[in-house]
Amino acid sequence: MVREKNEAxxxxxxxxxxxxxxxxxxxxxxxxxxxxxxxxxxxxxxxxSGLLIIFISTVLYLLIRQYGSYHLMPGxxxxxxxxxxxxxxxxxxxxxxxxFLRKAREIDSTITLRDLVAAIYTxxxxxxxxxxxxxxVGVPLYLSTASLxxxxxxxxxxxxxLLCFAISGLLYFRSLLFLGGWLLLAGFTFLFxxxxxxxxxxxxxxxxxxxxxxxxxxYVRSSREE
Length: 226
Known about the structure:
By secondary structure, the chain is mainly α. It has 8 helices and no strands.
């Protein structure tokens, strides 16, 4: 009886080892994002990004109202604002990387940060990103030189929305579609129906609320799957 139990335990151990080997083999042959719960990895960072965008934009708007314009703000105040924005960006970037790495190691415990970055920045990803980056730089630059500054944010939101749709399937990240759809809706709304809305309010509505929606969608989808 004891011998049969030991053999059963050994068979179970071999089966678990085989499953682990298969999991690692599959993750190496395919993009890790195909097996990772990306929505869970990004949802907290998305919510915090939305809140930070709303908070920073609101503070900047109040400062502009107080001093009359951005250029009339004291240099020290602007410096503190720049530092806060830089720290916020670094915080969100680190949070996203840690979350992605933690979820990736649930698939393959040996994966490193370098492996994760390589899984994101594939040749296909770069081929998609380069044209969008060119457009994201070129269109605002042209609109600025043509004295069409009011169109910069609507077009930026639209381009970012299209980019979200382009890379959502590549990263197996369906919650990104919510951000992309919201940015398209907001961009066209600002372009045709609310052209006079203050730029900071446009940022709050488009990117601030957009990231909140994407983060909330990640939580809702995860709760349904559970």
